[in-house]
Amino acid sequence: MDRTVIAYVIYLLVSVALTIWVARTLSRNGRIFLADVLHGNEQLADAVNHLLVVGFYLVNLGFVALYLSGDQTIEDTRGIFEALSTKLGVVLLVLGVMHLGNVYVLNKIRRRGVMEREQVPPVRPQDWVAPQAGA
Predict the structure, then answer these.
(1) pLDDT digits (tens, 9 = 90+) for 61-111
(2) Interval 18-67: pLDDT, tens
(3) What is the 8-class DSSP label of residue 74?
(4) DSSP code of 71?
(5) What DSSP designation does 72 have?
(6) Which of 85, 80, 65 has the alpha carbon at shortest distance from 16?
(7) For the whole model, what pTM was predicted?
(8) Which of 15, 28, 38 is nearest to 86 (CA)?
(9) Helix, strand or coil for residue 1?
(10) Distance CA 83, CA 89 (A)
(11) Is 133 helix (H, G, I), strand (E, B) or coil?
């Protein structure tokens, strides 16, 4: 078997395994965060969580597939490690950027919800003041 093909197989196995592990970890731990963002609506949190995981898989596995091919032919074992380190490093960076992007967007949604909750007066207004004519 050609060394380039060996590198492709190892790259695919490791990349797909990493993508699945990250998606499951984010799904399991992100559910609690989503429930808070969505004001305790568990069903909506589960649905949004599932949609985020599906999107995560599509984007990352699509990237892994597109990034599979390489221009160079791998001549020796050292070349396998060099090619794998470059390809897997880029995949890990993309996974990290996707994760940070998800957290950033969800945090913005959460902050907006917190600000909306804080705008409600803590007690009912007790009186009403008419606007002044000269103001």
Answers:
(1) 998 898 888 777 788 888 888 888 988 898 889 888 888 887 887 788 778
(2) 989 988 988 888 888 888 877 788 898 889 889 888 988 998 899 889 88
(3) P
(4) S
(5) S
(6) 65
(7) 0.70
(8) 15
(9) coil
(10) 10
(11) coil
Distances 18 to 26, 37, 40, 91, 127 between C-alpha atoms, Å: 12, 27, 30, 9, 61
> One-letter amino acid identity for 40?
G
Q: Residue 11 burial (CB < 10 Å; 0-12/13-18/19+)?
A: buried
Count of all residues that appear for the chain in the document:
135
What is the Cα–Cα distance from 32 to 25, expressed in whole angstroms? 12
Say if residues 74 and 80 touch (Cβ distance below 8 Å): yes
Residue 41 in tokens? 């609506």
Strands (E) across the chain are located at none
- Tokens describing residue 83: 């090619």
Confidence at 16, pLDDT banded by 50, 70, 90 = very high
